[in-house]
Every structure is written in C-alpha cells, then in structure tokens.
C-alpha cells in the first residue's frame, strides 16, 4: 500500500528576489514523498502566492487527499480530485517519480518526450534601479547568454537600456508582471525594440487581457498569470503569441503536457518557467523544456544553495543531474 508524506522546507534566497509585487529573501517549498513499500517518489512545489496560496495551505491540501492517494488514485484521476495549483503539482510529480522507479521506465519515455539533454536557461535580474540592474547585467553576462529582466512600469525603458549597456551581447526577455495595465502597451513595446528584446511577459493584469485586442506589438507577448492551464487558453488566442507554462500553476506535468500540445496546435510558442525552487522542483519542467522556444528554469540558481543531487549549472547551461534526482 502507498504511503504519503508531506513537509515544508525553507530555502534562503541569494540576496533578495524582487519583482513588481515585492521581494523575497526565503522561499518555502512543499515536498511530497510517495512510497509503495519498495520505491520512493518525490515532488516539490512552491505556493502560487498571487492565488492566495501559502506553503501551509498547500501542505494542508496534500494532507486532505493523502488517503485517496494512498488508496490508489492515479494521475488522471488526480486532475478531477484536486484543483490546479501547487499541491496537485507536488503530488503529480511524486506519482510520476514512483511509477518510473517501480516500472524501470523513465518519466520522459512514459510521457512521450525526448531523452533529457542540456538546455540554456534564462537568468533573472531582479527589479531595481537602472544603475543596479546595469551592474547586475554586467556581472551576469559572462555566464548567462539569456537574461530576463523584471520590470515595474514606470522607468522600464531606462532599466532595459541600462541592462543592454551592461550586457551588450546577451539575449533579453522582459517580464512586466502585469505592470503595464494602465500604460500604452504598444508604445512601451516599440520603445524596447532598439534594445533587442525578444519577448514581453504578462504586460497587463490577468483578467484584463481584452486590453490587448487592439495592440499590434512589435515584440511577441507571452501570457503568464493569464494562462494557468488548458481552460485559460481560449482568452489568450489572438492576444498573446506565447504562453509561459509553470507546473505549479498548471497543477503538474500531466496537465502541462496537454496544455503545451494544445497551445502548439494553435500556433503559439512556449516558454517553460518556474517559481523559486530547488532542482527537485524544476526537474519535471526540465523534461518539458527540451523543445521550448524559451526556458526559464533558474529557480535553483537564485537560492543560496541547492539539493546535493541537483542539476549541474554551467553558467546558463543546465545539465541533467547524474544520477537523476527525479524520474
């Protein structure tokens, strides 16, 4: 018979991680372990704070369904048993992991994905003054060929210009974190063209996506908060060129596989992203990222430390953990 264990772990952030909504100096992750008597599967998730989740509420959600999981609920049934979110993600990941170890068939094969290989992840520059962001970009550029800038609305053009000065050869993507809701999105995007920005994430508040109906952005727009799982795709069509898939939002790899397939069938491009997390948290997303247009799995890089069996990061190159920590 299965046994489910759940716990909260606290991991310090390297410095502070700052976005338009605030700063974090620690991140609490929820770890779920499922054992079948011989094998142990693990999953990790980070609460979606803008949905009102906390590590404690996620842990409580897991405990509420632990009996059903122990009785044999599978990944398909989990989609209807629980809502999307971090709790379902942690359980889904642990189920994939224990099934892979029990069967001897790795997750990527069970999921119909390619064998994992090295990928290039973005490295995130926290929101700050242009001077500080230029310094951060100059320090990061020798290691990270793809930089992601956190923006806040007022002063964003100066921030991007400063980062470009600090990292003249880096690829740049920006995350407005909904801060352009009351701004002229098309004009803001046009102002960033000279700096070679190749993607703009979530310019307007989720639920205000209709504001993009008349926007002809010269830079592709990517839905993040506006696209959690498959039901959200309908209001993204024609407004966004891409979606940022995060397993904590979607509620696990099982849902994310379908979300990616439907988005691509509709002609949308895909970014694979993450919350602040350890390597265990990004392991399922790493499999999904093998053919993504943009990859933003730097969660472990933004912490003071990582799990001993975590990924090997060579600058922006993310290499599979050996031996595999998951799946």
Q: Helical segment tally?
A: 10
Number of strands: 14
Q: Judging by the overall fold, what is the CATH architecture of the largest domain?
A: Alpha-Beta Barrel
Structural class: alpha/beta
Major sheet: order of its strands? Answer: 5-6-7-8-9-10-11-12
The CA-CA distance between the termini, in Å, is 20 Å
How are the SSEs placed, and which strands pair?
Blueprint: E1 3-19, E2 22-35, E3 40-46, H1 55-70, H2 75-81, H3 86-103, H4 107-110, E4 119-120, E5 123-125, H5 130-140, E6 146-150, H6 156-166, E7 171-175, H7 185-192, E8 197-201, E9 221-223, E10 242-245, H8 247-250, H9 253-265, E11 269-272, H10 279-288, E12 294-295, E13 312-314, E14 317-319
Parallel strand pairs: 5-6, 6-7, 7-8, 8-9, 9-10, 10-11, 11-12
Antiparallel strand pairs: 1-2, 2-3, 4-14, 13-14
Task: Offer a concise description of the structure.
By secondary structure, the protein is an alpha/beta fold.
Give your account of this protein's structure.
It comes from Alterirhizorhabdus solaris. Its EC number is 5.1.1.-. This is Dipeptide epimerase. By secondary structure, the chain is of the alpha/beta class. It folds into two domains: 104 residues, Enolase-like, N-terminal domain (Enolase-like, domain 1, 2-Layer Sandwich), CATH 3.30.390; 201 residues, Enolase-like C-terminal domain (TIM Barrel). The protein is built from ten helices and 14 strands. The strands form three sheets. The chain has an eight-stranded parallel beta sheet. Strands 1-2-3 form a three-stranded antiparallel beta sheet. A three-stranded antiparallel beta sheet has the order 4-14-13, with no helix packed on it. The longest helix has 18 residues. It is globular. The two termini are 20 Å apart. The model has no long low-confidence stretch (mean pLDDT 95).
